[in-house]
Amino acid sequence: MLAKDIMSKKIYYVKVPGNRAQALEIMRKKNVSGLPVVKEGSDKLVGVITRSDIIENPDEEQIALIMTRNPIVASPEDPVTLVASKMVKNNIRRIPIVENDKLVGIITAYDIVSRAIAQMDIDSPVEDYMILNIPATWDRTPLNIAFEIMRYFKLKVLLTINNEARLSGILTETDFLNESEVVSERTVHNT
Predict the structure, then answer these.
(1) Is there a shared CATH topology between the 3-119 domain and the 126-190 domain?
(2) Residues with Cβ < 8 Å from 119, sequence gap 6 or more?
(3) What average pLDDT does the segment 100-112 reach?
(4) Is 16 exposed, middle or buried (0-12, 13-18, 19+ CB in 10 A)?
(5) How many whole angstroms separate alpha carbon 188 and alpha carbon 191?
(6) I want to staple 48 with a disulfide (CB 3.0 to 4.6 A). Which of 1, 16, 71, 172 is the partner?
(7) Distance (Å, rounded) from C-alpha 177 to C-alpha 107?
(8) So where are the chain's domains?
(9) Is the pLDDT of residue 87 over 70?
């Protein structure tokens, strides 16, 4: 199976020049965690921007200064196994598909996993696959400290526990983005 067989041709992307608000708006509306970045006036791929990139650069507005340049890419003719291998090796969740420097598609980890699972005969319970040692934080931990825990462990989610050491909730990157929006709105209203 080739990349062109499973790639999505409906691509959500942002352009440079552009700003973080534009990227966040598309991510929220389309429910995606990252976007290819193309040069305005062309379909030439120049980078990728993710929620993590935005969170890690809170004071930067320009997409060009937040995005990852020279992203890992694949060709429509590449085998899906090569695309999956690139994702695992580089710890990424999406790979833009490029032909003649032009963005023509995208493959996400979900695209590959959903097809693989559909073809597999798996009767094993989830407990055979789950991770047992997961960083967690007390639910009274200040938000900025919880953020630093997530950053240190390179987590997309952080479990919270209460005084009885029972699971009380979960924090995600989206929660931090939403909180940063509220802070920005308060700042704008207070000036």
Answers:
(1) yes
(2) none
(3) 93
(4) middle
(5) 6
(6) 71
(7) 24
(8) 3-119, 126-190
(9) yes
Nearest residue to 135 (alpha-carbon basis) of 127, 147, 123? 147
Q: What is the pLDDT of residues 46-73, one digit of tens each?
A: 999 998 899 888 889 999 999 999 999 9
Task: Work out the number of other CB atoms within 10 angstroms of the CB of residue 147.
Answer: 20
Q: How far apart are CA 148 and CA 146, in angstroms?
A: 5
Query: Which DSSP state fits 161?
Result: E
HSE toward the beta carbon, residue 94, CA cutoff 13 A: 21
* Residue matched to tokens 């989206």: 174
- Rounded to two decimals, the pTM is 0.72
* Residue 110 neighbours by CB under 8 Å, 6+ apart: none
Q: 103 - beta bridge partners?
A: 98
Give the separation between CA 36 and CA 15, rounded to whole angstroms.
Answer: 9
Q: Which residue has the tokens 């020279």?
A: 70
**Domain 126-190 is classified in which CATH homologous superfamily?**
CBS-domain (3.10.580.10)
User: Residues of 39-64 as b/e, b for ≥16 C-beta within 10 angstroms?
Assistant: eeeebebbbbbbbbbbbeeeeeeebb
CA distance 39 to 64: 10
| Extended beta strands in the chain, E state | 14-16, 34-39, 45-50, 68-69, 94-99, 102-108, 136-138, 157-161, 167-172
CA 4 vs CA 77, 107, 118, 125: distances in Å? 6, 9, 19, 33
